[in-house]
């Protein structure tokens, strides 16, 4: 590969990078739609151990908060090529995964994580701890990739595929004590008859 290792490790971890500068998000919010190009789809397939990513797109609404955090909601849609776990035939699966994540400046995260811990002790539904805003940016491409991977069926199967387990009649000579029985018969065979 040309270029050595420069840039490759980052691309391997985050195959779809689309950065949004938090300081440039208007107070009224920002709507962004992204579509993965062919090179990005190939990289996502490689990282996600998929046969292929036929299509991938996402839509986001980013709403900044007064405390410097940013609430990101949206959806990712994708069509991925996988292999049926029953027939081993190639199949395609549709992904439609919601996104709802709070991002916060790194210095606020310990305090917000404490609030999450306190909420866990109550009866209310526990919110997820916020993700860090790194260097003033939110990577909505990575967010879309993570959601896409969450939506993948780990055991894809064709609609009509049925796993038929082969049932064999138990071999009467194949049981845990068969070896002991054979030893006993061998030992009994050595004894003189009539003794």
Give structural notes:
Pfam families: YceD (PF02620). InterPro entries: YceD (IPR003772). This is DUF177 domain-containing protein. With 195 residues, the protein is an alpha+beta fold. Helices cover 27% and strands 29% of the residues. It has helices at 8-13, 38-47, 109-120, 140-150, 178-190; strands at 19-21, 30-35, 52-64, 70-83, 90-104, 131-132, 137-139. The strands form two sheets. The protein has a five-stranded mixed sheet, covered by helices on one side. A two-stranded antiparallel ribbon has the order 1-7.
Q: Helicity level, as a percent range?
A: 25-40%
Q: Cα-atom Rg, whole angstroms?
A: 28 Å
Question: What is the CA-CA span between the terminal residues?
Answer: 82 Å
Q: What number is the mean pLDDT? A: 82
- Class from helix and strand fractions: alpha+beta
Q: Give the helices and strands as they follow along the chain.
A: HEEHEEEHEEHH
Whole-number tally of structural domains: 1
Backbone shape: elongated
Task: Report on the biggest sheet.
Answer: 5 strands, mixed
Stretches where pLDDT is under 50 for at least 5 consecutive residues are 1-11
Strand content: 25-35%
Number of helices in the DSSP assignment: 5
> Can you count the beta strands?
7
| Physical arrangement of strands within the biggest beta sheet | 2-3-4-5-6
